[in-house]
Amino acid sequence: MTIHRGAAVLALCGLIGMGAQARAQHAEAKKAEAHGVAKAVAILIPTKGSKVEGRITFTEEGGKVKVHGVITGLTPGKHGFHVHQYGAWSEDGMATGGHFNPTDDKHADVTAPMRHVGDLGNITADESGKATLELEDSHLSFHGASSIIGRGVVVHEKADDLVSQPSGAAGGRLAVGTVAIAQP
User: Fold this and answer.
1) Which of left, alpha, beta for 134 (phi over 0: left; psi -120 to 50: alpha)?
2) In order along the chain (184 residues), what is the average pLDDT of each group of 10 residues?
């Protein structure tokens, strides 16, 4: 097997970049913990060729995080909706990595007691392509190992089947946002 020097350099740069991103996410989580963060927001930006956009608000109350969102530009029907490992945008959305899963659990529905922290199920778009999301979740947090601060939020092209491992077979990534600390 021949390894090309250019490919090796690109792979090394990618690993260095992921390390730097992990350090930045850890710093954001520590900042959230130190400042008693109670609210975060993710602005969804369309990936290449998509028109999907939106705003997701996360509010921590009583040990749970309330998630509210409005997303537009979707095809009518269900679309997978997840918190992903990295809060990085790219043309294809793949820079977000896989579902955020600090507990190393299997993929499941948002209602399952054991699941990826990032498994938030499906959103449903109406005939105009608009989806409104309201949910409460005790797996999400702004502090500790399960902190979503600095992580990515992804809307997928298809419905999450809630069974296929490790990601629910939800297809391509239509929009990506980064969970950022918001002013209360």
Assistant:
1) beta
2) 41 47 50 67 97 96 92 97 94 94 87 84 97 93 92 96 90 96 84
